[in-house]
């Protein structure tokens, strides 16, 4: 069921909407692709949506990212796994390779100058972590290793005006711009815009045997920062999404309790990244801690009551989907598995009463993301199907290998 979303794409789409996986038509195309892969929809409809995305020029400048432009369109086409898109993918891949090399050169030059990064240099939504997801999906292992090597370099400690800071510290606010409310900048811990995105990519690639020198050290360094800011132990553990310069220096968090339990900034996204890091390093103690934190989060009514909608980015859909992926990797019968079962029931009960989302093709904040998360619960599929891996763009799971897609069409 598509919950009222259009089955036929409109013509004359705005170019920005046509290329945005976050807020535009590629999200709707992705939904129809997943429905076709799980026999809940048909490939003709999915192809109409794919064609609407690829009908016009696609941005391949250095601001293109996993959620906008050539990388976003390529990500969508690979989930489709249709041979008829091979030519389009080859063209997109050439542009993605060029823009990735340019962005890597810019990032390394910035590090060599001793400057601190913008969030959009390295994060999942706009940065090199997101582009790394595309390279992972495309099995461009050589260039992916260059991205991983950059992330390793990014995590090294730097000294700025006498302050010892992680290399991913930014002088900007969470908006990505200079902000007088954030003097001295901040450490962003979130999965969407912060260091948990690189952590998840470093961990997932290591799990799949793709490594570079220093990768284990980089994962451990990020883990130490997240360990430092884990609060509420042992009864109500949680992570903040951001840490200000004043908090960093004083080692005291001014936030007194957990924020909303979202995929993007909240404890669920951070816990999933920590769990993946534990799996990569074969660290059962860290895995148990991450799963315990997440189980506590999704059984805490005070945290759940902070969710105001059903969006994938910061609402119920993102919480449930992230928790589902974590529960799939948790030991059978564990507290997390049991907590997730209860969470699913609670979500089904609350969904009809949540405020309506924007009825656009956006994956992150629109109806599409919520439908995809619900579809994944109602239509479980084997790991050999590409629909299992649409959420690779969220870093909640790793991209499927191309060879695994043969025979699924």
UniProtKB/TrEMBL annotation:
A Pfam family that the UniProt record links to this protein: LANC_like
Residues bound to Zn(2+): 264, 313-314
Any one biological process term the GO annotation gives: peptide modification
Keywords associated with the record: Metal-binding, Zinc
Highest taxon, organism lineage: Bacteria
Protein's UniProt keywords contain Nucleotide-binding: no
GO molecular function (one): metal ion binding
UniProt-recorded name of the protein: Lanthionine synthetase C family protein
Species whose genome carries this gene: Thermobifida halotolerans
């Amino acid at each position: 069921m598509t919950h009222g979303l259009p089955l036929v794409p409109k013509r004359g789409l705005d170019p920005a909407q046509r290329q945005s996986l976050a807020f535009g038509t590629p999200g709707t195309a992705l939904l129809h692709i997943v429905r076709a892969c799980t026999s809940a929809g048909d490939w003709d409809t999915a192809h109409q949506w794919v064609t609407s995305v690829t009908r016009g020029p696609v941005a391949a400048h250095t601001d293109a990212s996993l959620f906008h432009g050539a990388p976003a369109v390529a990500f969508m086409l690979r989930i489709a796994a249709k041979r008829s898109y091979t030519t389009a993918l080859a063209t997109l891949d050439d542009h993605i390779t060029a823009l990735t090399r340019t962005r890597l050169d810019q990032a390394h030059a910035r590090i060599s100058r001793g400057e601190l990064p913008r969030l959009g240099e390295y994060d999942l939504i706009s940065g090199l972590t997101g582009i790394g997801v595309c390279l992972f999906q495309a099995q461009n292992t050589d260039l992916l290793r260059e991205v991983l090597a950059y992330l390793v370099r990014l995590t090294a400690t730097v000294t700025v005006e006498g302050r010892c800071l992680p290399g991913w510290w930014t002088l900007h606010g969470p908006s990505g711009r200079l902000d007088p409310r954030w003097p001295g900048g901040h450490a962003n811990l979130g999965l969407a815009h912060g260091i948990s995105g690189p952590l998840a990519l470093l961990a997932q690639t290591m799990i799949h045997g793709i490594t570079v020198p220093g990768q284990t050290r980089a994962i451990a360094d990020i883990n130490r920062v997240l360990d430092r800011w884990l609060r509420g132990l042992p009864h109500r553990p949680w992570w903040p999404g951001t840490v200000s310069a004043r908090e960093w220096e004083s080692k005291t968090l001014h936030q007194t309790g957990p924020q909303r339990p979202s995929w993007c900034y909240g404890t669920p996204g951070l816990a999933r990244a920590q769990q993946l890091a534990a799996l990569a390093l074969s660290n059962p103690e860290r895995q148990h801690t991450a799963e315990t934190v997440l189980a506590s989060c999704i059984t805490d009514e005070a945290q759940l009551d902070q969710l105001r909608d059903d969006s994938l980015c910061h609402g119920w859909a993102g919480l449930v989907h992230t928790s589902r992926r974590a529960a799939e990797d948790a030991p059978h019968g564990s507290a997390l598995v049991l907590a997730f079962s209860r969470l699913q029931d609670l979500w089904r009960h609350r969904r009809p009463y949540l405020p309506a989302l924007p009825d656009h093709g956006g994956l992150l904040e629109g109806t599409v993301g919520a439908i995809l998360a619900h579809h994944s619960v109602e239509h479980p599929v084997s790991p050999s199907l590409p629909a299992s891996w649409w959420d690779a763009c969220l870093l909640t799971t790793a991209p499927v290998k191309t060879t695994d897609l043969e025979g699924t069409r």
